[in-house]
């Protein structure tokens, strides 16, 4: 018998009007939670190093799907096995970090970056 432990979180709920998330991971301080609450994620991200064969923009929906360097890539924040057990707070921070990574590096391995950071977050929650 298989048991599913998957959860789907919306990172949009509770962002405005105070009371950021009713429950939050214990590894964030109050100040960190407030900082994460104030993060404004863009609706789309211009992929500066994209060629004419790549997507020029990455639309930042719940799941990020894009074509880059000849590959169809996806970061499945709402349904992916690396992300589905993360809290909404951790997901929002992870999206922020992934955007920063893409801006400084490339979108070609952003999916691997997000998976690595998500795995690290899960390990921190266990400790």
Tell me what you see in this structure.
The protein is of the alpha+beta class. It has a domain at 41-126. Helices cover 33% and strands 13% of the residues. The protein is globular, with a radius of gyration of 15 Å. Residues 1-23 have low confidence and may be disordered.
Task: Give descriptors for this structure.
single chain; 127 residues; alpha+beta; two-stranded antiparallel sheet; 33% helix; globular; disordered N terminus; Site-specific integrase
Helix/strand-derived category reads: alpha+beta
DSSP E strands, number? 4
Number of helices: 3
Order of helices and strands: HEEEEHH
Which shape, going by the Cα principal axes? globular
Strand content: 5-15%
- Uncertain parts: 1-23
Tell me the radius of gyration: 15 Å
> Within the largest sheet, what's the order of strands?
1-2
Average pLDDT value? 82
Main sheet attributes: strand count, strand direction, barrel closure: 2 strands, antiparallel
Helical proportion? 25-40%
Note the gap between the termini. Answer: 29 Å
